[in-house]
Amino acid sequence: MSLLWLRFALGCYFIGLVYAFVALTRTSDLFSRIALHAASLGMVFHFVSLAELFLSGQVVWASVHNGESLLAFLSMTFFMVIYAIYQTTSPGVVVFPIVFFLTFVGAVDQQPVLLTQFVSHKGWLIAHIILIFTGYAALVLSFGASLLYLLQERRLKAKKSTSLISFLPALEVIDQIGYRSLLLGFPFMTLGLITGSIVALTTYGRMDFLDPKILLSLLMWAVYMLMVFTRWNSGWRGRRAAFLATFAFVAALAAWAANYFSAIHRFAAS
Amino acid sequence: MRFQLIGVNHKSAPLEVRERLAIPESRLPDTCRDLNAYPGIEEGMVISTCNRVEIVAHTTNGHADLRGFLHDHFHLKPEELDAHLYEFREKDAVRHLFRVASSLDSMVVGEAQILGQVKEAYATARAIGAVRGQLDQLFSRAFAVAKRVRTETNVGSSSVSIASVAVELAKKIFGTLEGKTVFIVGAGKMSELAARHLMAHGCASIFVANRTYDRAIGLAQRFNGQAIKFDDLYSTCDRADIVITSTGSPHAIFRREHGEQFLARRKNRPMFFIDIAVPRDVSPEMGKLDGIFTYDIDDLQQAVSSHVADRRKEAELAEAIITSEVERFEARLQTLDVVPTIVSLQDHLETIRQAEIDRVRGRMGNLTPEQEMAVEALTRGIINKVMHTPITTLKTAAKESEATTVVDVVRRLFNLRDKEAPAPEKKNEVGTRP
User: Fold this and answer.
1) Do B176 and B152 reside in the same domain of the chain?
2) Is the pLDDT of residue B429 over 50?
3) Is B297 in the same domain as B334?
4) What is the pLDDT of residues B261-308, one digit of tens each?
5) pLDDT per position as a tens digit, A153-201
6) Is B270 in the A-facing interface, judged by CB distances under 8 Å?
7) What phi and psi values does residue A149 have, to the nearest 5 degrees?
8) At B201, phi and psi to the nearest 5?
9) Is B46 a domain residue?
C-alpha cells in the first residue's frame, strides 16, 4: 500500500515538475497556485506512504529507495515552510524536479533491504537518518536559492524589464532563503554525521577514514562549513556562493552514490 | 515659417553619443551666441537635457546648415553623428517642439520636468537676445500648448516618473525598502524627487553630498538627513544601499575600484546606483561587479517602456491637440504676415476720411455735437464697409499660398507701397514665462 500512496504523490509532484519548466519561460499566477495545491496534495499522499512504512514495524528506512522518498518529503517540507514565510513558489523551480526525481526512484521499485548489522542501534540509526536527510533537504534548498539568485542577478544586470523578472522574488529575499536554509541545515548535517559516526563506531569498533562514504561525507561537510563561513565572514553571494553550493551539492550526490560501493555504509547490495 | 530643428534624443542616439553633445548649463549662453553667429541663422537656441540636445532656429531661407554647426561646434565627424540626428523643418519643426514641451516625446511620457527644462533653455536664450521675434512666438505657443495638453488630457496624471521606476527596481533588489539608506550625490531636482519617492516607500535615512556643501545641507535638512562633505564621499558611500547620482562631472566619479572598496566594506551586500547624470557618473565597469546594480538614464527608459502602453490612449488625445495647435499656429503666423498691409490700408483710408471731413467742414457751417457725431458715424461706416471685403480677403488669403499676390495687389490698388507699416504689437502668452 505504501508504494501505491507514493505513486499518487508522484503524480501530484509531476504537476510541480511541469510548473518548474513553464515558470522558466513565463509567469502564471494560476499555474503557480495549481502547482502549489498539487504539491500539498502530493505531500499528504507522501506522508501517508511514509507513515504506513513506519507503522509496518520494520526498519525499512535504511533502504536506498525509502531514504530517497524521505529526503523528497523533507525537501518539500522545507519548500512549504519557505512558502509560508516568503509567499513565493519560485524555489520550486529547483526543488520540484529534484523531489520528483527522488520520489520517482522510490516509487518505481522497493528494495526493503535491512542492514542487519545496525539493528542493535535502531534509535541512533533513525536519529542519524532523519538528521542527515534534514541537512540534505536544507542543502537542496540552499543550492536552489543560489541558482535563483544567479538567475535574478543576471536578469537585473541585463536590465530587461520583462515579466520574467516578476516570477522571481527580490534578490535579497532569495539570498535570505538560501542563507537561512544553509544555517538551518548545517547543525542537522553535523549532528547527522556525529550520530552516523557513533553508529559506525559502536558497530565496527573503529572508523575507516579511507572508506569512500566517510571521505565524501567529510568533504561535503567541509564544503558546507566553508559556505557558512564565507557567507558569515565576507558575505559571499552570487557567483562565488553558487559555485560553492554546486560543489557541496555534487559532494552530497557523490556521498549518496558512495552507498553503492562503500564497505561500511551499504544498503541494497549487501 | 522658416523654422528648423535638429537634434538627438533618447530614442535616436545612445547615451555615448548624447554624452558628447551634452552642454553644461554654464556653457549654454556661449553655445547660443555661437549658433546665432552661424551663417543663415536669424534666431537660434539650444535645449540640452539628459535625454536630448536640440537646436531650434528661425533661419533666413529655411535651409541653414544646422548639421554643419553641430559638426563644427562639437568637433564631431559626420559619420559619428549624422546617423543619430533627426531634422525637422517648418510645420514639422513646430510639431516636434510642441510634442517635446508637452512631454509626448519624453522618455517617460507625461513627466513634468521637460517643460521646466525647455522654459529654462528659453529664458537663457532670451536673456542673451538670441530669441526675439518668431522664436519667441513659437516658444510662447509651445508653453501654452503644453499647458493645454496637461489640463485637457490625463497624460501627466498617471505619469510613471523616473522616481517611481527607481523605487520599483530597488524593490526588485531589496524586497522591502524598510530601513534602507539612500545617498544623494549632486543635489538636483530629479534626484530629490527620486529620494522623496524612496523615503515614502520606507527608506530610513538619507545622506547628501554636493560639491557646494551649503546646497547639500539645504537638501539634507529637507529630508532630516545628513550632509556629507564631497571629499568624504568615498569613505561614506558604502553605508548607503541606494545611491542616486546626478553630478555635472564630465568624468565618471564612481569607478570599478570604488565599487570593490564599497563591497568589501559592506560584506558584499548589494548596492543600487541610480545614475541620472549625463555624462554618466558611474562607469560601466563598476556595474559589472557582482552585487553592484547600476541603472543609467537609458536603462530606466527600458524599464518604463512597458508603462507607455497604459497611456497610449491619452497620448493619442494629446497628439490631436498638438495637430490642431500646429495648424492654428501656422495660420496665426501667416495672418501676421498680412497684418502690416491691413494696418496700412486702415491708416490710408482714415487719412482720406479725415481730409474729406476737414475739406467740407467749412461749407457745412456750425454743427451741433449730435450732428458732428452723425457725420463721424456716417463716414466711418462707409470706410468700414469699403474695407471689409479687402481685409477679409487678405485674412483668407493669408492661410493660402496666394497671400503674397493678394498683399501685392491690395498695396498697388491703394498705393500703399511707400508707406511704412507699423510693426504688429507683440503679444506674450500669459503665465508662460518661467
Assistant:
1) no
2) no
3) no
4) 999 999 889 999 999 888 899 999 998 998 899 998 888 877 766 555
5) 888 888 765 544 456 788 888 888 888 888 888 999 999 999 888 888 8
6) yes
7) -60, -45
8) -95, 15
9) yes
Within 13 Å of residue B69, how many CA atoms lie on the same side as its CB? 26
Shared domain check, B297 and B331 = no
B chain contacts of residue A236, beta-carbon cutoff 8 Å: 268
* Residue B379, H or E segment: helix B369-398
- CA distances to A6, A109, B205 from A50, rounded to whole Å, are 8, 15, 52
Which residue range forms the structural domain that includes residue A249?
A: 120-270
User: Which residues in chain A are closer than 8 Å to B304, comparing Cβ atoms?
Assistant: 161
Neighbours of A222 (CB within 10 A): 12
**How many domains is chain B partitioned into structurally?**
3
Distance in angstroms (rounded) separating the CA atoms of residues A206 and A212:
15
Q: Is B50 tagged catalytic?
A: yes
CB pairs < 8 Å spanning A and B: 53
Residue B34 binned pLDDT confidence (cut-offs 50, 70, 90): very high
- Are A128 and A107 part of one and the same domain? no
Euclidean distance between the first and the last CA atom of chain A, given in angstroms as a whole number? 26
Report yes or no on B317 lying in a domain. no
Model ipTM over 0.90: no
Residue B43 lies in a domain: yes
**CB spacing of B268 vs A170 below 8 angstroms:** no
Tell me what the mean pLDDT of segment A240-252 comes to.
85
What total number of domains does chain A contain? 2
Residue type, B369: P
**pTM score, whole prediction:** 0.60
Parallel/antiparallel/unpaired status of strands B86-89 and B52-59:
unpaired
Separation between Cα atoms, residue B6 and residue A193, nearest integer Å: 74
Cell of B30: 556661449
| B103 within some domain | yes
* B127 and B26 within one domain: yes
A contact residues 190-249, partner B, Cβ 8 Å cutoff: 234-240
How far is Cα A263 from Cα B342, in angstroms, rounded to an integer? 113
> What does the pLDDT read at residue A159?
76
Residues A248 and A135 in one domain: yes
Chain B residues with beta carbon closer than 8 angstroms to that of A179: none
| Whole-angstrom distance, CA of residue B110 vs CA of residue B87 | 23
User: Cell digits for B159?
Assistant: 505619469
Contact between chains at B290 and A172 (C-beta distance less than 8 A): no
Amino acid at A169: P
* CB-based contact A237 B306, cutoff 8 Å: no
Partner-chain contact A170 B174, CB within 8 Å: yes
The 3-state DSSP class for residue B57 equals strand
* B279 upstream amide cis, omega within 30 of 0: yes
Q: How far apart are CA A124 and CA A117, in angstroms?
A: 13
For residues A1 and A100, state if they share a domain.
yes
List of residues 6+ apart from B198 with CB closer than 8 A? B163, B166, B167, B170, B177, B180, B182, B242, B244
Q: In terms of DSSP H, where are the helices of A24-116?
A: 29-55, 64-86, 92-108
The side-by-side arrangement of strands in the sheet containing B226-228 is: B226-228, B205-209, B181-185, B242-245, B271-275, B292-296
Same domain, B195 and B74: no
Q: Which three cell numbers stand for residue B433?
A: 514665462
**Which residue range is the domain that position B126 belongs to?**
3-159
Q: Are residues A168 and A109 in the same domain?
A: no
Is the pLDDT confidence value at B422 over 50? Answer: no
